[in-house]
Specification:
Layout (H helix, E strand, L loop, with lengths): L4 E2 L7 H4 L10 E2 L1 E2 L2 H17 L8 E5 L6 E5 L2 E5 H6 L3 H16 L2 H4 L1 H11 L11 E2 L11 E2 L2 H8 L3 H17 L5 H8 L14 H5 L4 H12 L9 H18 L2 H7 L7 H13 L3 H14 L4 H13 L3 H14 L4 H12 L4 H17 L4 H13 L3 H15 L2 H14 L5 H18 L1
Parallel strand pairs: 4-6
Antiparallel strand pairs: 1-7, 2-8, 3-4, 5-6
Helix pairs in contact: 2-4, 2-8, 2-12, 4-8, 4-9, 8-11, 9-11, 12-14, 13-14, 14-15, 15-16, 16-17, 16-18, 17-18, 18-19, 18-20, 19-20, 20-21, 21-22, 21-23, 22-23
Keywords: Hydrolase, Metal-binding, Metalloprotease, Protease, Signal, Zinc
Organism: Meridianimarinicoccus marinus
Protein name: M48 family metalloprotease
């Protein structure tokens, strides 16, 4: 389930992404990462990636915990959409229009051409942190569950992701074609752009981030509408897209907003799965566990093979202190989705909560599998450190702690634990080598 994590970010390999700090810790933004929400967003992205001739499962869509209207790409594998922008979207077409535009930047090579500029800026702005995805610490927000954060220097991000008008025009045209090929009405992109009209007339400090990183103009909106008139989208069934859009938006809205907001705006006549998800989170936030369970039960009964329904139920039970019920739900979720790292991390966390020798050993196995599939979830790393410590492996416990601090951007603390790990682990072992990566990154940081 959703958890807000704070973190500073890194690249694909540990040594690469540890080059984060140049002049102090980066300002972190939260990336809200939930297994069910990501699944929904990736379903919406796949037809657009296919239309662009890109691998359908290579690029992920993630949600940044900011209410400003913005979307951007950090590399060819990740599209970021601000929570505020997603919540403003009225239907799947509009959200897919945003995704299509960002896919076009990837397909047209715009990010790749700025790679050299990013390298040149790395030392001064910690821009290396922007080329990957790292993870962060769990917040104390009672509505939070499990997630990941990407840390970003806001000024560096604006510089790196600022698009020229030529790039924007090209991305608009390509994105419109991708929408039509995927059977999505391309007029949705014009509808989205209407949200930003007038932004250029505001002072820079009052503009939404999208207006600063994606140059807008009334001429651009007119050009989009002219192109739309010449396109005829393929005829496809849009029901599945609307279903997953509804689930993603309902979950995000219920997580970010008050339970009273969710419950008053969900009509009693709304019996959809999205409504059940929103009500479950809202009732949990109101400490009405039985009502929350009832909504999860509705979802599970309708979709018994849906791992994300079980994940939601497991998170609610664990956060409410019902460990055994949480374990049962997470076990089912993990059986249904054995390759989903966030579900595995939740399962390991529930097993660890038993505080028994058998539970700790099983938790260690599950958490190691989660780490193998997602190295950047700091809450998972915290739990993994506890599991190692309880099962008599202090060296690996220190390593997990070192990596967690590194992901926070607390490189000096990371180095302390990495030295402890290196001293306790066999020289040349995989764990020892990872500890050396942290130590090396810390030494590099000192020399800057």
């Amino acid at each position: 389930m959703l958890t807000l994590l704070r973190r500073t970010a890194l690249g694909g390999v540990f040594t690469a992404f540890l080059a984060i700090l140049a002049s102090g810790p980066a300002m972190a933004q939260g990336l809200l990462r939930d297994a069910g929400m990501e699944h929904a967003l990736n379903i919406l992205a796949r037809p657009l990636l296919t239309a662009a001739g890109l691998p359908a499962n290579r690029t992920k869509v993630m949600v940044v915990n900011e209410m400003g209207l913005n979307a951007f790409v950090a590399n060819s594998r990740t599209i970021f959409i601000n929570a505020g922008l997603l919540l403003r979207m009225q239907n799947a077409d509009q959200l897919q229009a945003v995704i299509a535009h960002e896919v076009a930047h990837i397909a047209n090579g715009h990010f790749a051409r700025r790679g050299l500029n990013a390298q040149a800026m790395q030392r001064a702005t910690a821009i290396g942190a922007l080329v990957g995805v790292a993870a962060g610490a769990a917040s104390n927000n009672p509505g939070a569950g499990a997630g990941v954060i990407m840390g970003i220097h806001s000024s560096a991000r604006r510089t790196l992701f600022a698009h020229t008008r030529e790039e924007e025009a090209a991305a608009d045209k390509s994105g419109l074609r991708f929408l039509a090929r995927a059977g999505i009405d391309p007029v949705a992109l014009a509808e989205v752009m209407e949200l930003f009209k007038g932004q250029e007339d505001l002072l820079p400090g009052r503009q939404d981030p999208y207006a600063r990183t994606h140059p807008l103009s009334r001429d651009r909106v007119r050009a989009i509408r002219m192109t739309v008139d010449a396109l005829s989208p393929l005829e496809v069934d849009r029901g599945d897209a609307e279903y997953w859009f509804g689930r993603a938006k309902a979950l995000l809205s219920a997580y970010l907003r008050s339970p009273s907001y969710t419950l008053t705006r969900t009509k009693a006549s709304d019996t959809s799965d999205a409504a059940a998800i929103g009500r479950a989170l809202a009732y949990y936030k109101k400490s009405d566990l039985e009502a929350a369970r009832a909504q999860v039960a509705i979802l599970v009964e309708r979709r018994p093979d849906d791992p994300y329904a079980q994940d939601l139920g497991g998170w609610i039970e664990l956060e409410s202190g019902h460990v055994q019920r949480a374990i049962e739900a997470y076990a089912t979720a993990a059986e249904l989705a054995p390759r989903e790292p966030l579900i595995l991390a939740g399962y390991g966390r529930a097993l660890l909560a038993q505080n028994t020798k058998a539970g700790d050993l099983e938790a260690l196995e599950v958490l190691e599998e989660a780490r193998a599939r997602d190295q950047y979830d700091t809450r998972m790393l915290r739990d993994l450190s506890v599991a190692y410590a309880r099962t008599g492996n202090p060296g690996m416990a220190s390593l997990a702690t070192a990596e967690r601090y590194a992901l926070y951007g607390q490189i000096e603390d990371a180095a302390i634990h990495a030295h402890r790990a290196a001293g306790a682990l066999p020289t040349g072992s995989p764990g020892w080598s990872r500890a050396q990566d942290v130590i090396h990154a810390a030494n590099q940081n000192k020399r800057r």
